[in-house]
Amino acid sequence: MTSRPKYLSHSAYSQFLRCGLQYKYERIDKVPAPPAWYFIGGRAVHLATERMDAAGTWPYAADQLKEFWEAAFDQELNTVTITGTIEVSSLLRPGRTGAHHPPGTSRSLGLR
Known about the structure:
Largest sheet: none
Number of domains: 2
Shape: elongated
Number of helices: 6
Mean pLDDT: 76
Radius of gyration: 19 Å
Distance between the termini: 48 Å
Low-confidence stretches: 95-112
Strand content: under 5%
Oligomer: single chain
Order of helices and strands: HHHHHH
Helix content: 55-70%
Number of strands: 0
Structural class: mainly alpha
């Protein structure tokens, strides 16, 4: 049995009031939450630009930029799917979490 926390922050208390089960999973059981798609995309942008800088062959043609982006995005996506923290379908579903998925995601994932 886990011990009770000595105090609750405002965000923890608000989360508990909003959904006690979510509070339990996140703060007591420490179940990892899947990353939001924008974190995956953000890491991919940084990875692509690092690789472009390392290659040092500026300026790049549009097809070269596309290759850098797709390779970096696929690598980041594989990282989170291999570790089991996210399912690809969750990036594409409609609703709050999937309505604003990155442009071209379905094409990059070969789901078109």
